[in-house]
Design goal:
Length: about 210
Amino acid sequence: MEERRSDVAEAFELLLEALNEELRKVAENLSQVALTEGSMAAQRVLRRLSFLEQLRAQIQRLYESWQNGEMPPSEPSTRSQSLAKPETSNRDPTVEWLSGLITKPKRKRVWGGMPMPAFRPYILKALVKLGGIAREKDVLKQVEELVKPDLPEIDLEWMPTSNDYRWRKKTRWERFKMKQEGLLRDDSPRGIWELTEKGWQEARKLLENEG
């Protein structure tokens, strides 16, 4: 049961991290759009930003509810919220948002580093070294030896919420995608990573191209 709970926690944390990354990209795009395409285009980006922020907040509440073993508290309906009298301002909303972005204290970013797909070659190489099948901890150890010289500092950070290093989380997430694509077996015993025939072909191709 504890292992299953850990899987769910990791899924929530990966999703929240992905949303943080998407929010960063949208926020960075906003200032460019405001300068080059005008207020109307910036408003569309702002709506997207607002949607992502609300989605992240909802997922965070669900995560907290799952951790506490309780149903999330009910929220006022969107209709009720829409009936509330909006605050008025004479300033352009885009300028308002950008001004807030400038004046808010900067917080340390928790995203970035090596993209998750970049871990795939290291996973393939590690599994080849281990004979195509190995326990997760052995695969991660091999991946660490291969990837550590190339890792940005942010990927070496310890993440207290998941009790693990960032690069290990990314490696596990990429392993999940590899299973979906048929490169790793999805019927292996828990904690075992195993190449499929398709995975072996991909690994051989990788090694031939590098050799």
